[in-house]
TIGR03620 family F420-dependent LLM class oxidoreductase (Dactylosporangium aurantiacum), 292 residues
Amino acid sequence: MAPRSVSVWQPFFINSDSRAAVTDAAVELEHLGYSRLWFSAGFGEDVPPRFRDILDATKRLGVASGILSIWHSSPSEAAAFVQDAERAHPGRFLLGLGASHAGPVADTGTEYRKPYSKMVEYLDGLDAAGVAPEQRILAALGPRMLELSRDRSAGAHPYFTTAEHTAEARTALGADRLLAPEVAVVLDADAATARATARQYTRRYLSLPNYTNNLRRFGWTDEDLADGGSDRLIDALIPWGTLDRVAAGIERHYQAGADEVAIQVLNGGDATTFPADAFRSLAAALNQQFRP
């Protein structure tokens, strides 16, 4: 098996109030061998300084926004952060961009219209500001956004998807673009409690049309999408169980064409505590997949 790039996606890094706890966790992830750290940039106007804090505290760990909303931070603001990060830490920051969702956008008083056109306009702004395509990646789900990811960015960072979507994304992107899906996992071998933990997470996303429409494209029904998701959908979306079973679920995305899997450990809805033990265990289980 060829070595794979294994990364981390965790809301703790934007939600924790403790800068020291955040940087300590990032340093440990680097030591454990994870290649990149992804977390949301939130819905403010600027790129949060938390990304720079982590870059400054680590030596080789990649850091990526997963994602920066194109409705909230302007291309000029994003470009200024990317260029500052590149000067201080060349090649380590990746700007993940996404069209977000109608609800959060409307909450800021902005009309959510034509997200694809908005993304094209945003990328034009980044081009004008001197941010290269290789310095950005798109949170793409549907065919048009995947094609835009291929043509105008380093690749795609799909979120809340199955391995079948990963295979479709690889076909759309071609062989030379980065494909880095987020995959949420539950380290719990009890089916009832593992699925209950998973549903605490899935209920939110199954209320968002961007995600449900994407799942319907792959044959999931209204019955599958109801009440936090059917058992069949939970099992397809969220690898759960023993370390070996979770590793096998992650492996399905690599087999489908992922270059990098961004693992999110579901922590019972607690976004302010870092699940360190889980990432230590996963690092040991996936050790052979890490790049040297």
Q: What stands out?
A: The chain has a mean pLDDT of 94.
